[in-house]
Specification:
alpha/beta, three-stranded antiparallel beta sheet, 42% helix
Amino acid sequence: MDKKLIKDFPYEYEIVDPEKNEDLVNYFCTPKDEYVTIGPKKYFLLKGYLSGAARIYNFPLSSEDTFVITYPKSGTTLTQELVWLLGNNLDYEKAESININERFPFLEISAMLNIDEFPLTADLKKELKKSLIPVTLEQIEEMPSPRFIKSHLPLSLLPPSLLDTTKVVYIARDPRDVAVSYYKFQQFLNIVPPEKEFKQYWKFFMSNQIMWTPYFEHVLEAWEQRKHPNMLFLFYEDMLKDLTGAVRRVADFYGKTLLDDQVNNLARHLDFDTFKKNKSVNMEDLKKTGIYSSDGAFIRKGKAGGWRNYFDEEMSAQADEWIAKHLSDTDFRLPHC
């Protein structure tokens, strides 16, 4: 396929080959021309991303901004809540009263999906937009400082001055757990039909045909910047093992001094059993729009190592080989759990 350029954006893109796309169309509930690959690393994204790529890459930054960046399903929402509360004087009452999407918007959401094209009534579209506010790049640009912004894009597709200007918290997670969680999440979104097996999803994941892959390129871009003073690189597994320790690490990163009681209270607030019931983060309000399935949950299990319940011996061997191949020339290692 011919490579194409976008004005004011440094990377070429390609529309995903229609024959390759056929397998994806047969598995996912998506149109045939939905996907593109971006740049030399071939990040796999929805075609809609092209409409916002340049504006995202040239997004105006402030030194007061904070970005939480992850590959999807790596502990994003937990980290958003932690970072937002530390940046807002532990104002639990305010956090509870305002949806996480409004407090901590998703940078590329307006490019990745067009709510007006959803097969919903006008009232449901209005409800969905309300739940995702602020939904446009312009609205995010106009937010008052300090701004808290989430992205699943790799560093190379975000503003080049990001680390020199803002604070960035990046969270990584074992890709096997990521794939399982993403599979379940896309079932929850009615993107993956319930009869579709995880084994095929895992093949798509390893071959970089799942959104925001390649996984290791994404993570390693951040890992290479882990010593930058404005970068805090965390593992989700470490956060689960020691929430109080995670709270202290993030607080130190932002120059915040917390009393022991404050640390313990914040850790309790973020504990999975409490967090799952938190209406400002669990997206329960979106179920009535039909975007989310009435079965399942946005915040599902919050555990490490659950992939073992979904991988047979063949898949485990494939995963071991795939991980070893991508880490052979790096000092990046996945946490044991």
